[in-house]
Write a structure and sequence with these properties.
It is a single chain. This protein is an all-alpha fold. It has a single domain, classed as ABC transporter involved in vitamin B12 uptake, BtuC. The protein is built from 12 helices and 2 strands; from the N terminus they run H-H-H-H-H-E-E-H-H-H-H-H-H-H. It has a two-stranded antiparallel sheet with strand order 1-2. Helix 3 crosses helix 9. The longest helix is centred in the first third of the chain and has 32 residues. It starts with a helix and ends in a 10-residue tail after the last helix.
């Protein structure tokens, strides 16, 4: 009887629409994190365990700026700009000082370096901001409820979807319609040939890592009003991002979008159908997909 009652929502179009919209908003936020992670892996072939830590930094920078300037749409937008720019510079510095020296090292060593950064960032935020969890208010302009299709839904969640969609389109144009994007796509196929043609591959790697870090920082800033900003924020975000990248296909930007939307819906409807087991639903989806298609939805076998 409990199993049957868990699916009572199937005949309720309001509940289905609400969860679907929540899945879209959460999926777009996940896309911002996973896109950077997938982009970095596609070019440098480094699995960046520090990506969740950079997301956490973006959330803390946003919290700091809003806490100093007050809760308004202007301070929030400024905070997002600061978190994006700061994490970009952080990513560039980390790539130049650390990763650039180990690209030819064994992958296990690369993983240890990025995991070491996770530990450093975790201790750094405890020393600077403390161990307690923090939060910021949603700006008044983005606060409140709207009723699309007769369903009550938070304005901020819709804003997350719109912002994520805009960045997705911008990333598509950058990767597939610009000269820099052409070099990025070439580097994912044959970086040695690209270097032989006279392209500065080292600079390309640096800008790609910085862009990936900036996307994570922006996602952290956007998540700050709806998540508890604390030292452990990076852990679950990193797990979800890896699930998205694996489902979509390592190194595939369209795959990151498809994987993020799929995981967003799995989380939304998993919470509705199996509240006590919702956390494992995305992993079940990932496992089934990897059995059928080991290289992901839009990835390529290597």
């Amino acid at each position: 009887m409990e199993l049957l009652s868990a699916f009572d929502w199937i005949g309720n179009p309001v509940a289905i629409t609400r969860q679907f919209m929540a899945g879209l908003a959460n999926g777009m936020l996940l896309f911002l994190v996973a896109a950077g992670l997938s982009l970095i892996f596609g070019v440098s072939r480094i699995v960046n365990f520090a990506h969740g830590g950079i997301f956490m930094l973006g959330a803390y920078f946003t919290y700091t700026v809003v806490n100093l300037l007050g809760s308004s749409i202007y301070s929030f937008v400024l905070a997002l700009i600061v978190s994006t720019a700061t994490t970009f510079l952080f990513g560039v510095a980390f790539e130049m000082l650390c990763l650039r020296r180990i690209y030819r090292s064994p992958q296990a060593f690369q993983l240890l370096v990025t995991f070491g950064l996770v530990l450093i960032l975790g201790d750094a935020v405890r020393l600077i901001w403390g161990r307690e969890e923090n939060s910021i208010e949603i700006p008044a302009l983005l606060n409140g409820i709207v009723r699309p299709f007769g369903v009550s839904f938070p304005v901020y969640r819709i804003a997350l979807f719109v912002i994520g969609l805009a960045i997705c389109l911008g990333m598509w144009a950058l990767i597939y319609r610009s000269r820099w994007g052409m070099f990025v796509r070439a580097a994912t196929v044959d970086r040695e040939m690209l270097q032989a043609l006279g392209v500065d591959v080292r600079r390309l790697f640096t800008t790609v890592f910085g862009l990936g870090a900036a996307l994570a920082g922006l996602a952290g800033g956007l998540a700050a009003p709806i998540l508890a900003v604390g030292p452990g924020l990076h852990a679950q975000v990193l797990i979800d991002a890896f699930v998205v990248v694996v489902i979509g296909g390592m190194g595939s930007l369209p795959g990151a979008l498809a994987g993020a939307l799929l995981v967003g819906q799995a989380n939304a409807f998993g919470t509705l159908a199996f509240p006590t087991l919702a956390i494992v639903v995305p992993f079940i989806v990932m496992t089934i997909l990897l059995i059928v298609r080991p290289w992901g939805l839009l990835g390529k076998p290597e």
